[in-house]
Structure formats: structure tokens, C-alpha cells
Amino acid sequence: MTHHKDDAMLQYPRRSILKAGGAGAIGALIAGPMVANAAEPAQGTATMGVCYYPEHWPESRWPIDAAEMRARGITRVRIGEFAWTLMEPRRGRYDWGWLDRVVAVLGDAGLGVVLGTPTATPPAWLVAELPEILPVGANGQTKGFGSRRYYTFSSARYRAECVRIARAMAGRYGRHPAVVGWQIDNEYGCHDTTYSYGPVDLAGFRAWTARRYGTVERLNAAWGAVVWSQQVGSFDEVGLPVATPYDPSPAKLLDYRRYASEQVKLFHDAQVQAIRPSSPGRFVTTNFMGNFTEFDHYPIGDAIDFASWDSYPLGIAAGRDDPRWDRTGYPDITAWNHDVMRAISPAPFWIMEQQPGAVNWARYNPVPMPGMVRLWAWEAFAHGAAVVSHFRWRQGQIGQEQMHAGLNLPDGTISVGGREAAQVAREIAKVGPLPPTARGDVALVFDYQTVWMAEIQPNGAGQQHLDHVQSWYAALRGLGLDVDIVRPGADLAGYRLVVVPSVWIVDDALRSALERCPGTIVIGPRTGSKTADFAIPPTLPPGPLGKSLPVRVTQVAALRAGTAIPVVGTDLAGSAHGWREWLDTALPVLARYDDGEAAVVGSERRWYVGCRGDATFTRALMKAACVKAGLTILPLPDHVRLRRRGDLQFAFNYGPQPWNAPVDAGPFLLGGRRVEPCSLAIWRAGRGMAR
Ligand code: GAL
Fold first, then answer.
1. Are residues 537 and 601 in the same domain?
2. pLDDT of 116-151, one tens digit each?
3. pLDDT digit string, tens, across residues 60-93
4. Strand, coil or helix: what is 129?
């Protein structure tokens, strides 16, 4: 990275900092330096931000909004990410006047501006000029100009256009004293746009397969093309794996997913490179989505200063449809996504968009329970976030998303969520800087490719990989532990407990990281069940792990929903649900199914688990593993979760009953021993649940 932090610091006009201090008491307390650099989020001061669309409001409103933001303790504001047509109404005719004025107004109020590149919404003139950029759905239909994200990642010509606008923006604002950083594009893959099946995609995929395999013989072998006469005689005969009567080759499908994922990365990198040289000292990030797995996020993490994501806890909860969490979100799912951000990039992450009230886009759109907007912000900070930025400043009056709440109502008055966000800003001032996040108690290996493979070859209904990994994560968190989600191949040596809920392709890096780890390791079903070419390993699953874990999986069953096979062992009881394997092994059996077959086997510190389990089983399994690993646990009710950040212990109560922190908890920085529903407490650890 070529960041020159000091440049930026020097350039920032002092008057703005002073002025910022005057904008409000909270602002003065938490303002900190107004200019960011790549290291900014590490400074430890929890920071509030907001997403703002000045172009939707009269200019006379901008200074009023800016002053009000500062008065409410907001110091970061993201703008611009959909405004390409205003920036460049006709090819090459840039109109920066309005943006110059917005940036100046925000900067003068003491706000650090995050500029979004507007590449999720190419202008109508550009689409008319270059229709090849439009994505094509699996049904063969081209998605037209309209709404947003109407482009395919495969289009090199579109990438070039994006580089052009990103460069132009960076050239104009890259060194602007008010600009603290960049968001590239907006939510890659949102609205089903990771995959596209048009002519440019086909050409791109063919070229990619030619590069990967070199000869068609290799491609035919890798894809198992002899099955059903699928061999091709040249790369020009390679088609996209779409619109076939029945399953295409799974290896081909996996390659298409890999190809599509790499296109996102290419698209991303091109803009990062366009911006960096003209914007020294400023960070570059992009805003990921929660529970979104269509492309591999890890390589993108390597090209940004920190990861950020858009947290809509009720939106995600609606997908699972359990009324219990309708108004709070699931206690472990938002947290899971925070922890994924730390796996993507070690630097403190941002919440680029935080739900401020009801959203408009989920199946049902309830209003959050009072207190949840505050709780979600603090929970993000507890997991290591540097900034929580609400979407958006004011609920819109026009266009799409009018029904989506903001920190203010459409008439400009503060909303319920706005009040809670302002409360968080006041509390930040009270709590002070937060310590850095330390290593967690447990590592959980999470792999995007496995998600794709489980979609390609589920082998039955209800086999969603994310549900499975999140069930292990939730069980660990329910025992009061902090979980570090890590990439396959990450160093595991420092962890006393490592869990691998399921990674289908075990490459050398993962195998050797596991072999070198002295801690307790729990390996879940289907791990090592495929080669890099999506074939069954010749030694049977768990493939390359067979050496250290001598097991052969000889049969598998995808179970009907509702089927529960009792599993019993010492300290292990519950039911297998969804997936069951038959294990051929001489290893000691730790738990058996009711027909006497082995369900969990293992030697001293290496266990293999041959099923997906219900919550009781998964919790018992994680508990037994923690005991084996010598970790201290604190079993929690399912609506309470803990999280350590340095020496601070956070407790979150997703309701509905109050929860009492352990008697020795304290001294409290926020809240007290009795943690009310939809509320939280922070105390200095070291006493009370120190681990
Ligand atoms: C996000 C998106 C925003 C806005 C928001 C509404 O997915 O990035 O632009 O649409 O959702 O919840």
C-alpha cells in the first residue's frame, strides 16, 4: 500500500477541525482527527457515520443537514455512489460543480467524506452506447437499463469505463482535505448480478477455461466430460452451464462460479488501482452484504484497507422466517457477518450501512424493537468495527426506497432510530476509546467455495452450507466464546480449538495448517469430500485428511426434513438432522446413532463428525470440544451473547427477558449487572468472566 498518512493530516485545514468542535458537544468530544488514513480505524475511537444523498434534496438543505449530523455526533458521511449521471451527464462532459459544493459543505462542517464510485448505476447514454455491458439472466433475457446494477462483471469495456470515472473522481477529490476514503461500487452481486449468461460472459468463460486448462483434453478430464458425452473438441465449443435440461457437470458449474468470482475481483481491482495513485493517505474499501456468498470475498479483502458491510439484521432475519427474531434479528447472524469481515481483512471493519428502522425490501418489514438500533451499533463495535454508518440520513420522499426508514423522517424531524443513534454517539463519548480486538477463543474455518459446491451438489433438500456453519458458530457463541472466522489455509497454530464445520476441497495449505495445529480440531461432515476438480477423492472422503484422521465415508444420506436420528455418546446427545454419513474407521467412537453406527469418531485431539445435528447435538458437541481444549465456557440463554474487545466485556440481550451478568462482573462502563431486553452492558473484564 502506498499511503502517506502525514500528507493527509497536513492538508486538512485546522479551521474545519475547530469549527467541527463547535458544531455540538458530542461532536467536540468524539471528533478526533477529521482526516483518515489507512490506519484510521485502528485508533480505537468508535465513530458514527451516515449515508447521505444530497442530490435528492435542495442545496439549501445541505449545510443544515451537515450541522445537524455533527450535532448528533456523526463524523463520517458517505456520498455519491449512485450519482454517475449527475457527474457526467454526457460522455466526457463532467459536471463536478454540485459535488464540489457538497464536499465543501460537509468538510466545512467537520465531516470526513467517503466517496462512493458510482459504477453500480451507469448512465443511460453509456448503456445506449455499450449495450454489451447489460447482464443476461439464466433465462436468456437481457436485463435492461433501469433500477441499478445493470452490468455484467465480465465486460472489459465496462471495466474500462469504470476506471475512467473512478480516475476522474480521484483526480478531482483524491487529495481533497475533506475526503477520508473511498467505497468502490456498491454491494457487488446484489439483486442477483454476480452471474450473467450473455455473449461477453461466454467469451470470457471460454478464454478463462483455455487459460486454466491449456488443452481441451485436460478440460474434458477435469470436467468428467466422458459422462454423458460432454467432451468438447475446442475451447470454442465450451458453453455456459445454463439452460440445460438437467445437471451440467458439477466441475463445470464450479469452474463457472470460480470464473464469475474472479470477474468481481478484476472489476474491483481495476477501480482500486485507478484511485490509489491520486488519493494518497485515503482508505479504499467496498461494502459487502450480509450472508452473501456468491463470490469469494477473501481475495477482495487483500486489495482493500479494511472490509465494510451493510448490516440489515431484520432483512436477513426475514429470510429465515422465525417470528421470534422478527424485530431484533438473530443474535448470531449479524455477529457472524461482523466476524466474517475480520476474516476478510484484519484491519478494523466498518458498517457502511446500518439499518436505522424498518427496511422496505424484505418479505416482511417490521419495525425494530425499541433499543435495537442502539444495540446493533454497539454490537458492531464489540466485534471490532471502527465505524457504524447508518443508512440513511433522511427517509426519501421520492423514487425507490421511500418506505425505508432513515435517521430522520421525510419531513426532516428525527426518527426513533435517529434518537438511538445519537444516544450511541453520546455513549461513545462516555466510554472513550475502545481497545483493539484480540484473538478469539476458537477458530472456525469458513470457505466460500464450499457454499457454491453445496449449492451445485446438495444431494437433497435443506443442505445450505451457511446454515450449517452458522449452527456451529451459534453453538460456540452460546457457550460465551468469541469466534474468529478464518480462511482455509490461515495459520491455526495459536488456537486451542479449531472447528471446520465443512470444507469440501481440502488443499495442501489447509491440510498442513491443520496438521501443524497443536489444539483440538473438530472436522464436520463432507470435509475433504471432493478434489479440486469436484471428483470424489480416490481414497474416499475425508480425502487428504485421511492420513491424520483415518476414516472412510462409505455411505451418505440426505435426510427428509423433520427426520431426527438420535445420537448418543459420553457427554454428547442430540439428533442428526439433514445429513448422515457411515464411517468406516478403527478410531475410537465418541458417539453413535441409534442403530449402533459411529456418528463421531476421533483420537485424542482430532474428531470427525459424520452428521449435521440439531441445536442440542451441536451445542453438546461444541461443549465437549471446548472441555477437551481446556476452554472456559459460560452457557448462555439463546437471547444473550457476549463479546470481548481487549479488556472490555460486552453483553447483548436480544430479549425478551432481562439477564443478569455474573456476580463478579464490573466495573460497568455502560449499563449494569441486570441487562434489560434489547439492551447491553459493557464492563471492564479481568474480573468477571475473564478467560
Ligand atoms: C443496500 C443498498 C442501499 C440501499 C439499502 C436499503 O442494499 O446498498 O443502497 O438500497 O440496501 O436497505
1. yes
2. 999 999 999 999 999 999 999 999 999 999 999 999
3. 999 999 999 999 999 999 999 999 999 999 999 9
4. helix
Cβ-based burial of 481 (10 A; exposed 0-12, middle 13-18, buried ≥19): buried
- Catalytic residue ranges: 187, 353
Do residues 521 and 624 share a domain? Answer: yes
Would you say residue 268 lies in a domain? no
CA angle 412, 414, 416 (to 5 degrees): 140
> Which residue, 85, 98, 91, 90, is CA-closest to 148?
85
Q: Is 451 exposed, middle or buried (0-12, 13-18, 19+ CB in 10 A)?
A: buried
pLDDT tops 80 at residue 26: no
Measured in Å, residue 389 CA sits from the centre of ligand 1 at 12
Using the 3D structure, point to which of 629, 649, 669 is the last residue of a domain: 629
In sequence order, the 6+-apart residues with CB closer than 8 A to the CB of 482 are 440, 441, 442, 642, 643, 644
Centre of ligand 1 to C-alpha 409, Å, is 17
Asked if 638 and 659 count as a contact pair (C-beta separation under 8 A), the reply is: no
- Nearest-angstrom CA–CA distance, 482 and 497: 11
The set of protein residues with a Cβ atom below 6 angstroms from ligand 1 is 186-187, 190, 310, 312, 353, 359, 361, 391, 401, 404
CA 424/CA 106 separation, integer angstroms: 21
Position 63, amino acid: P
Q: CA-based angle 306:307:310, to the nearest 5?
A: 145
Residues 634, 643 contacting (CB under 8 angstroms): no
Asked if pLDDT for residue 354 goes beyond 90, the answer is: yes
The residue whose CA is least distant from atom 1 of ligand 1 is 310
Q: How confident is the model at residue 320 (pLDDT cuts 50, 70, 90)?
A: confident
Whether the Cβ atoms of residue 431 and residue 682 lie closer than 8 Å to each other:
yes
Ordered alpha helix ranges (H), 323-393? 333-344, 372-382
Q: Which amino acid is residue 309, in one-letter code?
A: W
Least confident of 41-55, 149-163, 198-212, 596-610: 41-55
Only one residue has cell 476478510, namely: 344
Is 17 inside any structural domain?
no
Domain count, the chain: 4
Q: Are residues 41 and 91 in the same domain?
A: yes
Neighbours of 363 (CB within 10 A): 8
- Tracing cell 426475514 back to the chain, one arrives at 318
pLDDT, one tens digit per residue, over 240-262 is 999 999 999 999 999 999 999 99
Cα 234 from Cα 216, distance rounded (Å): 6
Q: Tell me the whole-structure pTM to 2 decimals.
A: 0.94
Relative to the CA of 360, which ligand 1 atom is closest?
12
